Amino acid sequence: MNKPFNLATALLGILLYPASVVAADIDWNGFIAQGLIQAQDSGFVNSSGDISAELTELGLNSRLRLAPAWHLSGQLVYLDGGNRYPSGLRLDYLFLDWYFYNSSDLQANLYLGRIKNQHWLYSSTRDVPFTRPSIVLPQSVYFDAFRDIAVGSDGMAVQAHHHNNFGDFTFNWSLGNTPVSTEQSELLLGDAISGKLKMNFDHQASLYWQPQLSRFSFGMVLLDSEFSYRAAETEPFFAADFRVSRVMLNMRYQLEKWEFSSELQQERLQIDGFFAPQFHQDQLGQGGYMMAQYHQSARLRWFAMLDYSVANKDDRRGRLLNENSDGAVPTYFGYQQSVAGGFSYDFSSSLRLSAEIHWVEGAGRLSPVILPDVVTNRHKYWQLYAAQLTYRF
Amino acid sequence: MRRLALLALVLCCAVKSATASTVVVNNSVALDKLTSAQLRSIFTMRQIQWPDGSPIYVVVLPDHSTEHQRFSREQLRLFPYQLTNIWDRQSFSGTASRPWQATDQAHMMELLRTTPGSIGYVEQYQADPAVKEVRIE
């Protein structure tokens, strides 16, 4: 996702030119968000643990109607999240949208190009501050080190909505892959690598159901993805294949003042190679969060969240991880759990202030993933403070 | 006592009819009725074409207006914040445009009158040759 400029130029060319011609059929949106963030005693944001302004999110998007059933959508974003994900300008999405089936009870779209991940509760707009419930999303599901890989892919997707006497159903399917930048590779594998990581494919399907006249909605997501690593001759690592498969369940219950949401995931990580040519690892990780939101007024919203993840469900306190590394990797790298709370206040429909605190135990969701940074992340317990001002237009 | 009860019932009905939203479309739309589920599909921007293939233009009042909040709760059976969240998520993931926003009911009627394929809602609907009421079943 870090080679945006040629594609971005094409996007702007296509989307800007018709603006003067068919102003009524083009739609623009954008946002500017800047905040302060501090993750004391961890390398979540930076190595020092000092207060940082690396909480910048800018976005500009457009949707152009080419014909009644054809649209072109694109978005450019600039992100700076410190150590959380690679900073810089990205072409977030650029796709053709074909609304290929239209009836009173079934509508379906086909998307082609760089598409967004529509499968998880907040995946499609995780970088858009006023569409997500917290500044830092629960890391058990929305692991920032995987942000660029999980946010979308180059390929195709289908989305269908159907309603009948049992309620509303939404089905999503997508297949594609994502270019993996050097920075992204280092976030996942560690900065000692000098080879090349490539995603072979990302395949996902999800089904959402909201029973008739119910305040509940339920969802299920299946994910399968594969990566390969081509090692450089001069490094101590070896060619490898990584396979990540996920099963996720989610639930949402929405009332006038209260909103409850939860996503649970079980993830299988298979590694062949990398540490040694014959190395093989096959482990199941688990995680999930529960979040409560309270809309005190139309302007003020509070939230509280519990988040939990473990890299290996058979090693919930990281003892095996510690033993297998001959004590080099502390036990608290095997899991991460946190309690968080915060609020958002809308000064107007365009301007929002958000602030939150997270109390965290463990370092299981701190990058890099495969070769943990035990020097920077020396503490089992750490806190995260964040405040962000967002303007949308 | 019975008269008082009758009076209360009449007043109640009068208040209801005075504040209930009427769904209105431009005369070009070849429909006279919609189901609640269809109405929700249209206002959540999932259904973007009429059965003849022409585009649907959804017009709404500002989020904070009492008319919009009443329409959202009573006709769509969605809390206003749910509707706003759906529109935000769609417009920032590129899968739908936000609906057009009218400044008030007069502006809403003007947009409905002049835009073929448009749909909106008004309270205290007064017959207009360029628009028509749609029955919700």
Characterization of this structure:
The complex is a heterodimer of chains A (393) and B (137). Chain A has 393 residues and is mainly beta. Helices cover 8% and strands 54% of the residues of chain A. A 16-stranded antiparallel barrel of chain A has the order 1-2-3-4-5-6-7-8-9-10-11-12-13-14-15-16. Chain A has a single domain, classed as Porin (Beta Barrel), CATH 2.40.160.10. In chain A, a hairpin with a 2-residue loop joins strand 2 (56-67) and strand 3. Mean pLDDT of chain A is 91; it is low at 1-5 and 18-23. The longest helix of chain B is centred in the N-terminal third of the chain and has 18 residues, at 2-19. Chain B has a six-stranded mixed β-sheet. Chain B is globular and about 35 Å long. Chain B has 137 residues and is an alpha/beta fold. Chain B has one domain (20-136): 3-Layer(aba) Sandwich (D-Maltodextrin-Binding Protein, domain 2), CATH 3.40.190. Helix content of chain B is 43%, strand content 19%.
Q: What's the CATH architecture name of chain B?
A: 3-Layer(aba) Sandwich
Q: How many domain modules of chain A?
A: 1
Give me the side-by-side strand order of the main sheet of chain B.
2-6-1-5-3-4
Count of distinct strands of chain B: 6
Task: Name the descriptors.
heterodimer; A: 393 residues; mainly beta; Porin; 16-stranded antiparallel beta barrel; 8% helix; globular; disordered N terminus; B: 137 residues; alpha/beta; six-stranded mixed β-sheet; 5 helices; 6 strands; 43% helix
Brief digest:
The complex is a heterodimer of chains A (393) and B (137). Chain A has 393 residues and is mainly beta.
List the helices and strands and how they pair.
The complex is a heterodimer of chains A (393) and B (137).
Chain A: H1 5-16, E1 26-40, E2 56-67, E3 70-80, E4 88-102, E5 106-116, H2 147-150, E6 152-164, E7 167-177, H3 182-189, E8 196-211, E9 216-230, E10 240-254, E11 258-273, E12 280-295, E13 300-310, H4 319-324, E14 335-346, E15 351-362, E16 381-392
Antiparallel strand pairs in A: 1-2, 1-16, 2-3, 3-4, 4-5, 5-6, 6-7, 7-8, 8-9, 9-10, 10-11, 11-12, 12-13, 13-14, 14-15, 15-16
Chain B: H1 2-19, E1 21-26, E2 33-34, H2 36-43, E3 57-60, H3 66-74, H4 80-93, E4 100-101, H5 105-114, E5 118-123, E6 131-136
Parallel strand pairs in B: 2-6, 3-4, 3-5
Antiparallel strand pairs in B: 1-5, 1-6
